[in-house]
Each structure stands twice: as C-alpha cells, then as structure tokens.
Amino acid sequence: LLSDLIGTTVMKFRPPFGVINPHIAQVVKKNGLEIVGWSCRSFDTVKGLTSQRITMLAEQIKPGNIVLLHDTIAETSENLELLIDAFQNKGITFEPLK
Asked: Which of 5, 14, 85, 87 could form a disulfide with 92 if both were Cys (CB 3.0 to 4.6 A apart)?
C-alpha cells in the first residue's frame, strides 16, 4: 500500500518498539528488507517535546542521526517545526534514507 501511495518500492522496515526477534528477522530476510532503527531518542512519550527538550536534542544531534519521534503525541506534532528549526540552525540537513 505504501509503495502504491508514494510510487516507489519500500525496502526499509522499522520494527515496532525497536525490537527484533527471530520471527521478525525471518520475515525481514524473506522479503529482502533493510532494518532501520533510531540513534537518538527524543523521549517525547515521557518528557514531551518542550522547548527545553528541543534545546537538549539540538545539542546532542549529530549528522546521520535518526531521531525517534511519535506522531501520536500532540506536543510533538505541535513543536516539530521548532525542532526542525533548531536542527537546521545547528547546520543539520535532512535527507531521505538511502
């Protein structure tokens, strides 16, 4: 469905909760998928995405990091633009996964 919507084949998989077990690994391998995880947690589900948290994330972020955010957290969605601005002010660019 996703491939149909975006017009390209999706070959990446982010396991729920970042957890991989033998069953998931078998399905991923069978389908030729690449597992993608995160390298920087925002803790938005626990601490929210406050201005203080955005400042801390901007201090921690490094080129190539993948930040874990949750679109189900209203505060994250509401403050995403501030987070993007903070990263860009630090010189971080955004690129699709390759």
From this structure: 87
d(CA 60, CA 7): 34
Tokens encoding 74: 């209203």
d(CA 16, CA 37): 10
pLDDT for 8 equals 87
47-60 pLDDT tens trace:
889 999 999 999 99
pLDDT at 93: 94
CA-CA distance, 15 to 25, in Å (whole number)? Answer: 10
Three-class HEC string of 24-41 = HHHHHHHCCCEECCCCEE
Q: CA–CA separation, 77 vs 79, rounded Å?
A: 6
Q: In DSSP terms, which residues pair with 40 in a beta bridge?
A: 67
Is residue 78 classed as helix, strand or coil in its secondary structure?
A: helix
